[in-house]
Amino acid sequence: MGEKMNKYKGKIICVTSAKGGVGKSIFATMLTGVYSYLKKKVLLVDMDLSSGGISVLLNLDKGKTIYNLSDDILNNRFKEHDGYVLHYNDFVDVLPACKDPREGNKIDSKILEQIITIYQNYYDVIVLDTTHTPTNATLLSLDMADNILLLISDNPVDLKNTHNLLTVLESVNKENIKVILNNAYRDEKKYFKRYDIKNYINHNVDYILPNSMYIRDINNYLMEGKILVLNDKLVFKNDSDRELLIKMAKDLIGDSDEK
Ligand SMILES: Nc1ncnc2c1ncn2[C@@H]1O[C@H](COP(=O)(O)OP(=O)(O)OP(=O)(O)O)[C@@H](O)[C@H]1O
Ligand SMILES: [Mg+2]
After folding, report:
1. Are the C-beta atoms of 10 and 23 separated by less than 8 Å?
2. pLDDT tens across 56-94, in order?
3. Is the CB of 185 under 6 A from ligand 1?
4. Pairing of the two strands 11-17 and 125-129
5. How far is the CA of 147 from the centre of ligand 2 (A)?
6. Domains and CATH numbers, the chain
7. Ligand 2 centroid to 25 CA: how many Å?
8. If residue 200 lies in a helix (H) or strand (E), which one and from where to where?
9. What's the CA-to-centroid distance between 129 and ligand 2, angstroms?
10. Where are the beta strands (DSSP E) in 138-184?
11. Is the CB of residue 20 below 6 angstroms from any atom belonging to ligand 1?
12. Contacts 24+ apart (CB under 8 A), 215-221
C-alpha cells in the first residue's frame, strides 16, 4: 500500500443536492468520519450559512462561526486560523454556520473564497456541506470543489430537479460531478431502478449508499453528537459498507491503492 503523506493544500469536496432533506448533512459528517478513520486532517465546513446545523448535529455549538471569521478577515483582524474552528477529534475540525440566520446573506463570496483557500493550507480534505438552494455559498462551493457529490433520492420530484440541475451544471462545463443515490436516508421500498434513474437524469449513478446504511434509531445517536461511522456499532460494523465508503473517500481525493 503506497501510503502517501498529503502536504495539505486540501482537496475540496462539495456535498449538494437538488432537493432538501435527502441526507446531505448526515452523509457529509459520515464522509468526514471516514477521512478521520483514514487519518486525514479534515475540515467540515457548514456552507448552509443561514440554516445549517452541522455544529449542532455534532454537539459543537459553542464558539465562533464562519460569520465571525468573515468579519475578522474583512476588518483585518484575522490572525490565527485555529481560533475559528471547533475540534471534534485529532483529525476533524468543524467550521460552523452563522448563529443568526440573517448573517448568512451578509458574507461576500470573495471572503468565502478566501476562507476556503486559507484553510486548504491546513487540511488534507475540506468537506463543504451545502443547502440545495443556489445561494452564493452553494454556487461558490460548486465552483471551488475538486469533486461535487450530488446526492439524489428515489423520489420523482428530486429526479426531475436533479435532471434540471445536471443540465445547468453541464452547460457550464462542470465535469467533476459524482451522483450518489442515497438509499439509506429512509427505510422504504424503492420505486425506481438504477437503470431508470440513469436514463431519467441522463447521468451515471456513480455510487449507491445501500439501505444497510440506514440507521433506524438515528435520533438517539444524533443526540449523542457522534459521527455515525466512528461508532463501531453502526455503519462501519458492516464490512461491505465500510469498504464502499473507504474506497469512495479515497477515490474522491485521488488517493487510491492501485498504481
Ligand atoms: N443513514 C441514515 N439513516 C437513517 N436516517 C437518515 C440517514 N441519513 C439521513 N437520515 C434522515 O434524513 C434526515 C435528513 O437528513 P439530513 O439533515 O442529512 O438531510 P439534508 O439533505 O442535509 O437536509 P437539508 O436539505 O435540510 O439540509 C435526517 O434527519 C434523518 O432522519
Ligand atoms: Mg443539511
Report:
1. no
2. 889 987 889 999 999 999 999 999 999 999 999 999 999
3. yes
4. parallel
5. 18
6. 11-252 (3.40.50.300)
7. 4
8. helix 194-201
9. 7
10. 147-152, 177-182
11. yes
12. 215/184, 216/187, 218/26
